[in-house]
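Usage

Read records sequentially. Each one opens with the input sequence:
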Amino acid sequence: MNKHLSLIVTIVPLVIVFIGLIGWVMTLRNDVTTGNKEISGLHREIESLHERLNEEFSALNLDVDVMKGIQSLQENEMRTIMADHSGFADVLDELGRSGVLPAGERRIYGNYGK
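and closes with the structure output:
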């Protein structure tokens, strides 16, 4: 009987440790599986966010291109206006030198190209 008792005392703790180890491994496996699912969900969310950001950046690039076109048109119009003003300044200068303008009229129109 002593022999059986020592065998039981030896085996029971091993069985308890084995059952605890199995429980720990199953819990760890569940934790890893849950973590993988959460990480996969995060990857999908990040991909979705990335796609939305790409769309927004594409729209912003389009807006910037439109603004560049508008700026180019405005610059062209400004150059035309400045060239017209320069011509007006030349005409007024010639009129002033020839004495056609009223007496005392010596206004300087702009300072274009001078």
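Summary fields computed downstream for this record:
- The chain has a mean pLDDT of 86.
- The helical segments are 2-98.
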